[in-house]
From TrEMBL:
Any one GO cellular component localisation term in the record: outer membrane-bounded periplasmic space
Domain PLD phosphodiesterase: 302-333
Source domain of life: Bacteria
Protein's name in the database: peptidoglycan glycosyltransferase
Organism: Spirosoma arboris
Length: 810
C-alpha cells in the first residue's frame, strides 16, 4: 500500500510540472493539425507494364508528362540503401523526421558566415519538399518540419525511403531512381553495379550540371570522389570499391521500353491508377510472335494484305501469353495502332465447331450422321459452298472438316437460331448481344460480328472440354496490409506491390459450360483431321505439320481470314486482313491465315510434351455403336454393312435406318402397288432408295442415276395420301413474301418444286385453279396481277403443299 501511495504522489507531481503539460499540449496541437491538415500522398506515377517474369514490357508517361516510375520495396537493394543513406542522411533510421543536432550545426554555420551554407535537410524533409515544393524560406522550413513529423508518424522508414527514391529529380522530365536506371542504364535498379548506383545517388544534387550522356567525364570524377568516401568509411570492401572506380561509365539517354503496345495501352486504360501492372505475357513468346507476324505481313503485303493479329492463350490457366494487335504498331498508313484482337469482324465459318457441338448435345447428329449437301432454299435464303460445289450426302464430320455451308445452315435451322445466339451471348460475344434480334441463318456463315479475343476464348473452351472461362491478362497481386494513414491520405505508393483489387484486370474464375465434354471431344476429334480443303497448299506434304485441332474462316467479300487452333497446351487465334475492310481475292483462311498459325505452333510448341486429347474422364455417356453408313442411324431392315460410330448415350437420336423402303411391284418391276390396289398374287416386294426431295432434285439436275420407284398402278382409282408424307416442296416462290412488278411490263415469275422420287407428275394451282401440269424438275413461268395469290402444288399421289404471296405494283 505504501508503494502504491508513493507512486500516486509522484504521478501527481509530474502532472503538475510545466514540462509534462507542455509536452501534452504540443502533442494535442500536433494531432489536431494532423487531423485537419493531413499530408496528401497523391503521386501520379508512370504506368509500367511488366511480363510474367517481371521484365518491363512498356512504360508510359505520367499524367503530368514525367518519367516517374514506381520502384517497389524489393527493388531497393541493401547496396543502394547503404549508399544513399551514407550520402544523404546517416541518421535516417534514428531521427523523428528531422535531425536537431544537424539543424543546430547548420544554423551556427549560417550565422557565422552570414549566408546559408547548409540546410540540414533529412531524407524525410527532402521527401516533403519533393511532394510540396515551396520557396526556400524559414517559414517553409517550419512547414517541412511539421510535414516530416507527419510522414514519420504515419509511415515506416522503408516506405519513406521508397517514396524519396521515387521522387528524386534527374533532370528534364525524369524523376525517380528507377526511371533513371532504366532510361540511362537500360536495366532495373536491382541489376545496377556499385558504380552505377553511386552515379545515380550524386545526380539529384546537381541534375543540371551532371548530365548523364553529355558530361560523363565530370560525373566519373564526382563518382570516384564519393567512392573514396565509401572506402574511408569502410562502407564496402576495398575490392568492390576498386572495381567500381575502374568501371567505365556507359550511361546515355535510352528510349523507354515499348513492347506489346496494344495490350499495354489496354491494360493502362483498364487500370489507370495502378503504377505497375503485372501482365501474364511470356516475354519470349511475345517477342517471337511479334517477329513472326511482322515477317509474315511483309511477305503477304504483295497481295495487298496489310494487317494481322494474333492471340495466344495457355489452356490450363487461361492466361494470355502473347498479344499482337497488328503487324506494325508504328505503321500509321495501314492503321497499325488499331487493335485487331478487339476489332469486330465477320467470322466466316469459324463458328461452325460450336454449332456442331450443340447439335451433338441436342442428339440431332453423331459424327457419321448423313447430311445433305445439295442446293436448298431456306425460306428465300439459298446458301452456297465456298467452292460452289455440292457433294450430295456427306457425314457430319466430313461437313465440319470441309466447312460445308449448306449442312451447317440446315443444322442451325433444326437447332434454332435463338439457341446459338443464346449460347454466344452466354459466352460473352458483345456484338452478338447487340445484334441478337437481327440475326438469322446467315450468322453461321459469317453474318454477325465477333472479335479475335472472343473467338480465341471460345476455342480455348473447346480445348477444355466445352468449359468457358474469362481470359486473364494480368496477375492479381495478393492483398497487402495497408499502412496506417489519416483521413484524406493516399498511400498506394507504400504498398510492396500494387493491389489490383477492382476493375477489369481482376481474375475471375467463373466457368460457363457451353457444350458437354463428350461433344467437345467429338468436335476436337473432327477438327484434327488433315485430309481437308483448308490445309494450306504448301503444307499438304510438309513434315512440320503441327498436331492441332483447327478451323478456318473466310468472310463474305474476302475481307477477313481466320485460323484458330489448339492443342492441350495452347490455343492460338490468327486473323489476317485489312483494317480498312478492303477485300482481297487471294485472302482466305486456309492459304492466308493458316500458314501463320502453323508457324506459331511449330515455333512455340513443336512436338508438345503434353500429349493429346483423350476421352473425357468420367464421360461414361460417350460410347460406340453400330450404325448404317448410308444415314448414320441404327441399322434397319435393309442395312447390310454396318460400321461403328461415336454416340452420346441417352442423348444421341436412336432411330432405325430408313434409307430404303419396301415397295410392291409387278414381276417386271415396271409398276408399283399401294395397299389398296396390290393384287392377291403376282406382286413382288422390293426395296428402293428412300431419297428426300432435295436429293432427288440434286441427282436429276446433275444427271446422276439413281434407282427410282416405278410409276404407280394406273388402274388404281383410290385417291390417297399419308399424314406422314408431305407434298412437293415449293422452292420458288417464297411463302409470305411480297413481290413488286412493273404494271406496264410485268415480268414472268418462276415456279419450281422438289418432290419425292416416286413422283412422276406435279400439278400447279393459282388461287385454287389448275394452271398446268409438269414434271417435278420442270420450271414453270407465269405473269401475275397485283393482289394476294395462293399457289398450290400437288403430286400424282395426292399430296400437296401451299404458299401465299402478295404482288404489288412498283
Amino acid at each position: 500500500m505504501l508503494i502504491i501511495e508513493k507512486g500516486k504522489r509522484i504521478g501527481q507531481r509530474l502532472w503538475k510540472s510545466h514540462l509534462v503539460k507542455t509536452i501534452v499540449a504540443v502533442l494535442l496541437i500536433f494531432f489536431s493539425l494532423d487531423f485537419f491538415f493531413p499530408i496528401l500522398i497523391s503521386v501520379p506515377y508512370s504506368t509500367i507494364i511488366t511480363a510474367r517474369d517481371g521484365s518491363i514490357l512498356h512504360t508510359f508517361l505520367s499524367r503530368d508528362d514525367k518519367w516517374r516510375m514506381y520502384a517497389e520495396l524489393n527493388e531497393i537493394t541493401p547496396t543502394l540503401r547503404d549508399a544513399i543513406l551514407f550520402k544523404e542522411d546517416k541518421y535516417f533510421r534514428y531521427h523523428p523526421g528531422f535531425n536537431p543536432i544537424a539543424m543546430l550545426r547548420a544554423a551556427a554555420r549560417n550565422l557565422l558566415t552570414g549566408r546559408r551554407t547548409s540546410g540540414a535537410s533529412t531524407i524525410t524533409m527532402q521527401t516533403v519538399r519533393l511532394l510540396e515544393p515551396r520557396e526556400r524560406t524559414y517559414g517553409s522550413k517550419l512547414i517541412e518540419l511539421f510535414r516530416a513529423l507527419q510522414l514519420e508518424v504515419h509511415y515506416s522508414k522503408d516506405e519513406i525511403l521508397q517514396l524519396y527514391l521515387n521522387l528524386i529529380p534527374y533532370g528534364g522530365n525524369i524523376e525517380g531512381l528507377k526511371s533513371a536506371s532504366l532510361l540511362y542504364f537500360g536495366k532495373p535498379p536491382v541489376l545496377l553495379s556499385l558504380a552505377e548506383l553511386t552515379t545515380l545517388t550524386i545526380i539529384p544534387n546537381r541534375p543540371s550540371s551532371l548530365r548523364l550522356g553529355t558530361r560523363n567525364t565530370l560525373i566519373i570524377q564526382e563518382r570516384n570522389r564519393w567512392l573514396a568516401r565509401f572506402r574511408k568509411a569502410k562502407l564496402f570492401n576495398d575490392e568492390t570499391i576498386d572495381d567500381a572506380q575502374t568501371e567505365p561509365l556507359t550511361a546515355y539517354r535510352r528510349e523507354a521500353p515499348q513492347l506489346a503496345p496494344h495490350l499495354s495501352r489496354r491494360l493502362r486504360a483498364e487500370n489507370p491508377n495502378t503504377p505497375i501492372v503485372h501482365s501474364t505475357l511470356n516475354p519470349t513468346a511475345q517477342a517471337t510472335t511479334e517477329q513472326l507476324v511482322r515477317h509474315y505481313a511483309d511477305r503477304i503485303r504483295a497481295y495487298n494484305i496489310h494487317n494481322s493479329a494474333v492471340l495466344i492463350v495457355d489452356n490450363q490457366s487461361r492466361e494470355v501469353v502473347a498479344y499482337v494487335g497488328s503487324a506494325d504498331f508504328g505503321n500509321v498508313f495501314d492503321g497499325g495502332q488499331v487493335d485487331g484482337v478487339r476489332s469486330v469482324r465477320s467470322p466466316g465459318s469459324a463458328l461452325k465447331p460450336l454449332l456442331y457441338g450443340l447439335a451433338f448435345d441436342a442428339g440431332i447428329i453423331t459424327p457419321k450422321t448423313k447430311l445433305a449437301d445439295v442446293p436448298i432454299n431456306f425460306g428465300g435464303y439459298e446458301p452456297d459452298n465456298y467452292d460452289r460445289r455440292f457433294n450430295g450426302p456427306v457425314t457430319a464430320e466430313f461437313a465440319l472438316a470441309n466447312s460445308l455451308n449448306i449442312p451447317a445452315v440446315a443444322l442451325l435451322k433444326e437447332i434454332g437460331t435463338p439457341s446459338l445466339v443464346s449460347t454466344l451471348q452466354k459466352a460473352g460475344f458483345s456484338a452478338i448481344k447487340k445484334q441478337a434480334k437481327e440475326l438469322g441463318l446467315s450468322m453461321i456463315l459469317g453474318g454477325c460480328g465477333v472479335t479475335l479475343e472472343e473467338m480465341t476464348r471460345l476455342y480455348a473452351g473447346l480445348a477444355n472440354g466445352g468449359a468457358l472461362e474469362e481470359l486473364h491478362f494480368i496477375f492479381p497481386s495478393p492483398p497487402a496490409p495497408l499502412p496506417k494513414r489519416e483521413r484524406g491520405a493516399v498511400a498506394s505508393f507504400s504498398l510492396p506491390s500494387p493491389v489490383l483489387g477492382e476493375g477489369p484486370g481482376v481474375r475471375e474464375m467463373r466457368e460457363i459450360r457451353l457444350i458437354s465434354p463428350e461433344a467437345a471431344y467429338l468436335v476436337t476429334h473432327t477438327l484434327t483431321q488433315i485430309t481437308r480443303p483448308d490445309l494450306p497448299n504448301n503444307f499438304d506434304n510438309s513434315y512440320h505439320l503441327p498436331r492441332i485441332a483447327w478451323k478456318t474462316g473466310t468472310s463474305y467479300g474476302r475481307r477477313d481470314a481466320w485460323s484458330i487452333g489448339y492443342n492441350q497446351r495452347y490455343t492460338v487465334g490468327v486473323w489476317v486482313g485489312n483494317f480498312s475492310g478492303v477485300g482481297v481475292p487471294e485472302l482466305s483462311g486456309a492459304n492466308t491465315a493458316t500458314p501463320l498459325l502453323f508457324q506459331l505452333f511449330n515455333v512455340l510448341d513443336y512436338n508438345s510434351p503434353t500429349g493429346w486429347f483423350k476421352t473425357p474422364k468420367g464421360a461414361t455417356k460417350l460410347s460406340m455403336r453400330l450404325i448404317c453408313p448410308e444415314t448414320g442411324d441404327v441399322p434397319g431392315e435393309f442395312c447390310q454393312n454396318p460400321v461403328t460410330d461415336y454416340c452420346i448415350m441417352g442423348v444421341s437420336r436412336y432411330r432405325h435406318c430408313q434409307h430404303r423402303k419396301a415397295i410392291f411391284t409387278n414381276a417386271a418391276g415396271t409398276i408399283s402397288y399401294c395397299a389398296q390396289c396390290r393384287p392377291d398374287s403376282g406382286s413382288v416386294r422390293k426395296s428402293y432408295p428412300n431419297l428426300s426431295p432435295e436429293l432427288v432434285a440434286f441427282y436429276q439436275s446433275r444427271h446422276i442415276p439413281f434407282e427410282a420407284v416405278p410409276p404407280h398402278n394406273p388402274a388404281c382409282e383410290r385417291v390417297f395420301g399419308s399424314a406422314e408424307q408431305t407434298g412437293p416442296q415449293i422452292i420458288s416462290l417464297t411463302n409470305g413474301s411480297e413481290y413488286f412488278i412493273n404494271p406496264k411490263q410485268p415480268a414472268e415469275m418462276e415456279l419450281s418444286c422438289q418432290a419425292a422420287n416416286d413422283v412422276q407428275t406435279v400439278f400447279w394451282y393459282l388461287n385454287d385453279k389448275l394452271y398446268c401440269r409438269a414434271k417435278p424438275t420442270e420450271a414453270i413461268f407465269f405473269k401475275s396481277r397485283p393482289g394476294a395469290l395462293k399457289i398450290s402444288c400437288a403430286d400424282d399421289k395426292g399430296r400437296s403443299s401451299d404458299i401465299r404471296i402478295l404482288v404489288r405494283n412498283e
